[in-house]
Amino acid sequence: MGKQMLTLGTVVEALTGQSFPFMDQVVTDGAIDSRLAIPGSMFVALPGERTDGHDHVGEAFEHGALAALVDRDLTGPWTTLDLRTEPTEAQVRAVKPPVCLRVAGTMAALQAVAGYWRGKLHVRVIGITGSVGKSSSKELTAEVLERRYRTLRNPGNLNNEIGLPLSMLCLTEMHQRAVLEMGF
User: Fold this and answer.
1) How far is it, in rounded angstroms, from Cα 90 to Cα 79?
2) CATH number assigned to the domain comprising residue 71
3) How many angstroms separate the CA atoms of 134 and 45, rounded?
């Protein structure tokens, strides 16, 4: 049996409940900044204080993003798969990355995919919360665990309702532990 990896099919399954195992393109990472999109990543178009991620979907695809979660219609040289209703197998088979995955809300979709993916893996998670010293405690805990286990930690202080789900997208079956700072 092969290693379980986050795939485009897993993302669609998380958002629709439908399984499409032929959608086996691996999702390598998640990004909300198009400049940080890497080959195989999933870009999440979030509206921000200064700019709207939807305005940068094309740039994310230029950097190699495999897919983009969007909550409005966009025009461009890519396909769009509307996940607000159950897609047919024919619609899904017609998808050629890069693809916009049209959802009702990008933040909720990101969180749903992260939660679904976390639930598929058997990784022991250590959550670090509190008002002072979270990052230091996370780093120290991860350093100790890395001596014995393959350990994921959320980078820097990506510990909010956006950063934590993005970190979960990097989780693989190879990880044995995850140390996650949560600063909600």
Assistant:
1) 14
2) 3.40.1390.10
3) 28
Tell me the pLDDT tens digit for each residue of 123-178. Answer: 999 999 888 888 899 889 999 999 999 999 888 767 789 988 999 999 988 999 99
C-alpha pair distances (Å), 85 with each of 17, 101, 104, 133: 11, 12, 10, 44
**What contacts 143, CB < 8 A, 6 or more positions away?**
none
87 occurs within a structural domain: yes
Output DSSP code: residue 158: -
- Three-state DSSP at 51 gives coil
Whole-prediction pTM value? 0.90
C-alpha 43: how far from chain center:
8
Q: Are 63 and 44 contained in the same domain?
A: yes
Nearest-angstrom CA–CA distance, 41 and 66: 6
Q: 17's torsion region: left (phi>0), alpha (psi -120 to 50) or beta?
A: left
Name 34's Cβ contacts closer than 8 Å, sequence gap at least 6. Answer: 43, 53, 56, 57, 59, 60, 63, 65
